Amino acid sequence: MSNPPDYDRRSAPQRRQGFSTRCVHAGETLDSQGGIHSPLYNHSTFGFPSTRALMEVVEGRTEGNLYTRYGSNPTIRALEKKLADLENGQSAYVFSSGMAAESATILSYCRAGDHIICLGDVYGGTYEFLSENLPNLGIETTFLIGDETGAVERHFRENTRLIVFETPGNPSMDVLDIAETSKIARRAGVITLADNTFASPVNQNPLDLGADLVFHSTTKYLGGHSDLTGGVVIGSADRIRPIWTWRKNLGQMMAPEVAFLLSRSLRTLSVRVRAQSATAQAIAEFLAGHPKVARVNYPGLPDFPGHDIARRQMRGYGGVLSFVYEGDAQVTAKMVDRLKLFTIAASLGGVESLVTQPITTTHHSMAPEERARRNIPEGMVRLSCGLEDTDDLVEDLRQAL
Ligand SMILES: *Cc1c(COP(=O)(O)O)cnc(C)c1O
pLDDT tens digits, residue range 95-151? Predict the structure, then answer.
């Protein structure tokens, strides 16, 4: 490994508590019974002693609890404080899924006639939303990949409103320069929206690098145990505010039980993702030396094309990697079927290791020509490293290959 991850490097100039400390403590309060962290309020609605007290909250003069779909629920609010803190943002809104967070954010910033630029590889659902759903509303997207992402300025139009990107990108792990992209966008008055699901805030904070908004599928690393579905968008208070009515009126609120579970998971986020990132690095190095493997995509490998940018903007390189097996779809499927510890499943970020062929899951609905343009071959395999012992995972891969 060319450079050890420096998890204690501060991204904010002022001295703050370390990331692990904030995972445990940010947003937490003792509950009224002395319970050691914020309790679960499952309630859909909250009562008031008088009409005057109700109006104080309805008219926004005091922060109070009103109705859970609006987000005015103490369990939701405690979680949002923690998430905003971990991404170095002012405000966060949680949602019923990552796609809910993303779609509400895009809808609150774009209207009919607007134009979006999508940079690099993105999650299949993001691609489908931009390419199939938004054109029905009169919102057009230009998709730039590979070298084209360096020439984003040339694709700006009068009506360009938003740049959407994901780094590292799914499934080729392409790395995009967040600071450079954000600078170019800001000059043109275009808003940047970064999907930070793969890196997690343990490894990367896009807001510190100049992005306007960051979102996550909390279903992945933030939840971390493959037992919840959720999403979040984080940014400055001003940037976040317009999204509130969209979440409320599209009814995309996260359930309080899920919020409670997610807060629980976040307390161990730092130790989980550091261990997963170290395992992914070891597996990437093992695969890079294997004769049946044509290519390994992992930002932590010194000869990976995006390595230098990743070194600048990430503290660690994450727990996901992909590789290209020497074989067509069927031969590759047989190899995948021989794996015992890696379970065949879509998704990532949980404590259990998962394996998927992008052409069977995340990129199944993408047209073959578009897959070819994006260099996603039949033999591509994506691994999400869990918390098993690294040696056991390497042995499993060795016997399957
Ligand atoms: C899973 C995922 C999403 C969508 O999140 P859901 O919680 O499934 O709605 C978006 N972006 C990335 C990178 C993802 O991995």
Answer: 999 999 999 999 999 999 999 999 998 998 999 999 999 999 999 999 998 878 778
Fold exhibited by the domain 269-400 = Aspartate Aminotransferase, domain 1 (3.90.1150)
| pLDDT tens readout for residues 170-229 | 889 999 999 999 999 999 999 999 999 999 999 999 999 999 999 999 999 999 999 999
Alpha-helical runs (H) found in 165-306: 178-187, 200-203, 237-240, 243-250, 256-266, 269-288
- Residue 274 is a catalytic residue: no
Confirm whether 195 is a catalytic residue.
Answer: yes
Q: CA-CA distance, 30 to 38, in Å (whole number)?
A: 6
Q: Report the b/e string of 64-83 with b at 16+ CB within 10 A.
A: ebbbbbebbbbbbbbbbbbb
Indicate the top mutation candidate among 94, 197, 218 to test ligand 1's pocket, ranked by most ligand atoms within 8 A of CB: 197
CATH class of the domain comprising 19-266: alpha beta
